[in-house]
Amino acid sequence: MMIMPVRFESNPHTAESNRFQGRNPDSPEQQQAAAAREFAGLCDALESSGIQVVQFDDTAEPHTPDAIFPNNWVSFHADGRVVLYPMEAPNRRTERRQDIIDALSDTYRFQVSEIVDLSEHEENGHYLEGTGSLVLDRANRIAYACLSSRTHLDALGDFAQRMDYTVVAFDAVDRDGAPIYHTNVLMNVGEKLAVICDEAIRGDEQRHAVLRSLEETGHEVVSINYDQMDSFAGNMLELRNSSGNRVIAMSAQALRSLDEPQVAAIEANATVVSAPIDGIESSSGGSVRCMLAEIHLPKQDK
Asked: Which DSSP symbol is given to 190?
């Protein structure tokens, strides 16, 4: 699922905790125009690779400058459950839209058995921003999470208990020692391959625990460095196309940052699909994975 931007721009309410954003000096109108073009290019690239894109339009009001990143407010699960998440920035909370969930059920015929609403944690100042805060190994039911102002243990524990996940929580920092705002900018976990900026994980004990968990679940690990993470090489997502083949989506900037052995390891696992979204990345500090809310819901019986 993807959300077409209507009033996209760098969100001042998220800038304090997201050091990846705010590098774009363009006006809001220019940022929106560029984002619309880049969004369309990414959709085309995904659909050309056999990925079905279920697309919804953002709404002009209320103003939701980050609505292009739906994975932060919702996740869809193979047992029919839909999880809604607590968001740090007040102007992101209105991204949660029941009409989208209804359309997935009524128009696209996906089965929604239950809505698990974690948003009440906002009342206590505790947040968990979807599959930005969580990198889910769905096959092994493991949730990787780096703790930050947007990822709190209380909400994380609630998710784990209600969704029956084991949590691997850790601290991760950028090269200046500032907490990394979302787990999905430093790592991706697919069926057989994981890409991770493990040097960002604080302390040998935590780093070894994460890598050990990945290795014990049979993942080949591709390590990336800080420069590559800053180019959003950690923010990729593995998908299955209409033929059942693995596809891994990332931005053109992310792909350019990888060296030949890294690209070879990724391409041995899945077909790489990339598109240039430099404007979106520099404005908002998010990339391709953030733009995709993968739909694992079962189809309704005919």
From this structure: -
